[in-house]
């Protein structure tokens, strides 16, 4: 990493490694090219595929044509975003049409495919129908297929440079949780608790990707997972609140999930949290190179075996954004769970058991970004995972 650069960027050797992996994937899948799509959704995390290859995580819709041989080209929307894209991207940049004018960029990409004779094309990301239709019409000899899972599987295993960035993101995330424990008081509103989280990291370096928080009464509950949008509800003595937090360095964020209470937790909450910690530790110990997704799914069944359930995923790949695999349990499979998965060293995953009552009115959650090692998954976070009593 170039330490003085801002925004920060990875080394030339790191980008060369990524480009080599992408071309090895194309060769294995018999593809002439990849077309990657990125949008501003999820705090730019939907730009991660393009960012991984180009060093540009844009704001609007962008497309990257990355051929097996020949020069890549990054199409950037809108036109006034192109100057900075040319400063940040390590790949050539062209204007990609106005925001929302899908046919313009679809025609531009299609013209490149036709002119270069690229027939077998892998699509990465949620390519809009309109853009795909224009690409296909402009380059009728090209055949398209979705290779999103295959490409994102490349990103799950992290280099040492990437792990360094993730550790910094995890440290920012921990600092935000520490500030919340220190400053949260009964009578504050949910959005004020969010403000505490967001003000804990240096704005010059840190970027908030996820800041979810939801509160409820422990004795008359109505929430089992963190909320994506904070309310004006005032937290009170006897309340529980849940967080899901990701603060990033250079788009590489930690992810940490915690349960806090005001006052002594009721017996049911304590029992649920003890189970969440038990499941977390069981998954953490099991996650070694060569372990399969089936073995993790079996651990996920512990919630049902103890007369509880899970709403959120038990585990998902991470950095930048959600990556394969996404697992919950054998009894309650996650919609994105399709193909078997074998874990490998330096893959990064978020282990995040969410134990909820059968009526889904009360829940607890504990989770951390971890890296798979020969000794089990090692959390990149240092903030304590115990049930936090604050105020």
What structural category do the secondary elements indicate? alpha+beta
Overall mean pLDDT = 92
CATH architecture of the largest domain: Alpha-Beta Complex
Q: Can you summarize the main beta sheet? A: 10 strands, mixed
Please give the alpha-carbon distance between the first and last residues. 40 Å
Strand content: 15-25%
What is the count of distinct domains?
2
**Annotated CATH topology of the largest domain:** Creatine Amidinohydrolase
| CATH homologous superfamily grouping of the largest domain | Creatinase/methionine aminopeptidase superfamily
Query: Under the CATH scheme, which class of the largest domain?
Result: Alpha Beta
Number of strands: 18
Number of helices: 11
Notes on the structure:
Helix content is 34%, strand content 24%. By secondary structure, it is an alpha+beta fold. The chain has two domains: 12-155, 3-Layer(aba) Sandwich (Creatine Amidinohydrolase, Chain A, domain 1), CATH 3.40.350.10; 160-390, Creatinase/methionine aminopeptidase superfamily (Creatine Amidinohydrolase, Alpha-Beta Complex), CATH 3.90.230.10. Strand 5 (120-124), helix 5 and strand 6 form a beta-alpha-beta unit.
């Amino acid at each position: 990493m170039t330490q003085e650069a801002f925004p920060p960027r990875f080394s030339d050797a790191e980008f060369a490694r990524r480009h080599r992996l992408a071309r090895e994937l194309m060769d294995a899948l018999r593809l002439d090219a990849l077309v990657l799509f990125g949008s501003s959704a999820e705090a730019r995390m939907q730009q991660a595929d393009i960012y991984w290859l180009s060093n540009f995580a844009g704001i609007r819709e962008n497309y990257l044509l990355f051929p097996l041989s020949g020069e890549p080209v990054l199409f950037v929307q809108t036109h006034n975003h192109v100057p900075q894209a040319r400063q940040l991207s390590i790949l050539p940049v062209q204007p990609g049409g106005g925001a929302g004018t899908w046919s313009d960029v679809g025609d531009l990409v299609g013209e490149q495919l036709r002119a270069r004779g690229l027939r077998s094309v892998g699509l990465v990301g949620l390519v809009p129908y309109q853009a795909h239709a224009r690409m296909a019409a402009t380059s009728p000899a090209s055949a398209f297929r979705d290779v999103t899972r295959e490409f994102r599987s490349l990103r799950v295993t992290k280099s040492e440079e990437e792990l360094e960035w993730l550790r910094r993101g995890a440290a920012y995330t921990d600092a935000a949780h520490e500030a919340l424990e220190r400053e949260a008081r009964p009578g504050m509103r949910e959005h004020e608790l969010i403000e505490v989280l967001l003000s804990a990291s240096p704005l010059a370096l840190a970027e908030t990707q996820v800041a979810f928080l939801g509160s409820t009464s422990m004795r008359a509950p109505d929430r089992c997972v963190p909320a994506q949008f904070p309310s004006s509800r005032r937290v009170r003595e006897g309340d529980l609140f849940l967080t899901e937090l990701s603060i990033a360095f250079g788009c590489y964020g930690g992810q940490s999930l915690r349960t806090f209470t005001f006052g002594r937790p009721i017996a049911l909450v304590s029992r649920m949290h003890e189970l969440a910690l038990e499941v977390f530790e069981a998954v953490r110990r099991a996650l070694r190179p060569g372990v399969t997704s089936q073995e993790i799914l079996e651990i996920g069944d512990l919630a049902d075996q103890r007369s509880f359930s899970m709403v959120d995923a038990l585990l998902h790949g991470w950095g930048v954004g959600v990556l394969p695999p996404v697992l919950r349990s054998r009894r309650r499979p996650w919609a994105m769970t399709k193909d078997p998965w074998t874990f490998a060293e330096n893959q990064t995953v978020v282990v995040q058991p969410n134990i909820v009552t059968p009526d889904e009115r009360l829940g607890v959650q504990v989770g951390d970004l971890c890296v798979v090692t020969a000794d089990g998954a090692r959390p990149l976070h240092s903030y304590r995972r115990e049930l936090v009593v604050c105020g």
